[in-house]
Design brief:
Elements lengths: L1 E8 L10 E6 L13 E7 L9 E6 L3 H5 L8 E8 L12 E16 L2 E9 L1 H4 L6 E5 L5 H12 L4 E5 L10 E5 L2 H13 L5 E6 L2 E6 L7 E2 L10 E4 L2 E7 L9 E4 L29 E13 L8 E9 L1
Length: 319
């Protein structure tokens, strides 16, 4: 059973959830609502500096009042929880959770025939709107980047959660000091400086958290089961794999995922006889081992029965 919860709330100075202005959900009180609105969304999580546009969501079956005052939602805080709820044999509610947060950048209503819809364009709150021009880095000679970066980001974006996973031994033999309009402008400088000591730095904003990490960041791998896969994984570039799974909130950019090794123990699997051994190659995956997630895209259409209409798409590199 598919699950979602959308909350639009007033912004607050401390970044916590303010007064809820509007809420749509598929399981009010924990029980499925057959009359829940259909929603269609495309949520993107990309590294800083990689332009991919803003995230969008369409809510069908809105009230006439919301249609007539659609512009009132502009500027509100947005959060989307989604995934699978209990109800289907292979559904895993533990994989559901917070998919995206941000600010409603644009909001408009549409009425065509008997269909009334609300469209929202979502932009990351802290990164593109909030107090630009206050990112100052003071990475002094002989000091670790981790502490300098934590101080800089917390000062510039006090309402965001900060997660810096960088080798504490990453130091330079020269000062790296500067002021930048945003964290997006800061990252190329850090990437160039880290390259001086043979390191790569990655950064991303997702679900209210700014994550900055390097090659030493190795969180515990999250296992991908064959029943989680939607279609076949594929190589899209050198050492870069794209894998599509049922919609999941527990896998984030920077996470390590472990691909399944074999098809064994899948319900209904029938193995071939010894004399047709070559076909047993199909019981193993060509994509085995551990990969690190670099990009994440969540795509959903709540009432479309197609399995590909409620998925997470991950671009990963060999770990």
């Amino acid at each position: 059973m598919r699950y979602y919860e959308i909350i639009l709330s007033e912004p607050t100075p401390d970044g916590k959830q303010g007064r809820i202005v509007k809420q749509w959900q598929s399981h009010p009180g924990g029980k499925y609502d057959p009359g829940a609105q259909n929603i269609m969304f495309d949520m993107l999580v990309m590294p800083f500096g990689v332009f991919a546009g803003n995230s969008t969501i369409t809510i069908e079956g809105i009230s006439l009042n919301d249609l007539q005052q659609a512009q009132k939602f502009t500027g509100l805080q947005f959060s989307l929880k989604a995934g699978m709820a209990q109800g289907l044999p292979l559904a895993n509610p533990r994989q559901a959770g917070l998919i995206a947060t941000g600010t409603v950048w644009q909001s408009w209503g549409n009425w065509q025939g008997t269909e009334m819809t609300l469209d929202l364009v979502i932009t990351p709150t802290e990164i593109y709107i909030d107090e630009p021009g206050n990112v100052v880095i003071n990475w002094m000679k002989g000091s670790p980047l981790k502490s300098a970066l934590e101080t800089s980001i917390k000062t510039a974006y006090p309402r965001a959660k900060i997660n810096v996973q960088i080798d504490p031994n990453m130091i330079l033999d020269f000062d790296c000091v500067g002021s930048y309009a945003s964290i997006i402008d800061l990252m190329p400088t850090l990437e160039a400086a880290a390259a001086q000591v043979g390191k790569n730095i990655y950064s991303v904003y997702q679900a209210g958290t700014i994550l900055i990490y390097d090659d030493t960041y190795k969180p515990s791998p999250i296992s991908i089961d064959f029943v989680d896969l939607v279609g076949q994984p594929t190589w899209i570039a050198t050492n870069t794999m794209q894998v599509t799974t049922v919609l999941r909130a527990d896998i984030y950019v920077g996470a390590q995922i472990k691909m399944p090794a074999k098809f064994q123990n899948i319900p209904g699997l029938i193995q071939t006889a010894q004399d047709s051994y070559p076909s047993s190659n199909k019981y193993s995956s060509a994509f085995q081992g551990t990969f690190q997630v670099l990009e994440n895209r969540a795509v959903g259409n709540f009432r479309t029965p197609d399995g590909q209409s409620w998925v997470s798409i991950f671009n990963c590199v060999v770990s």
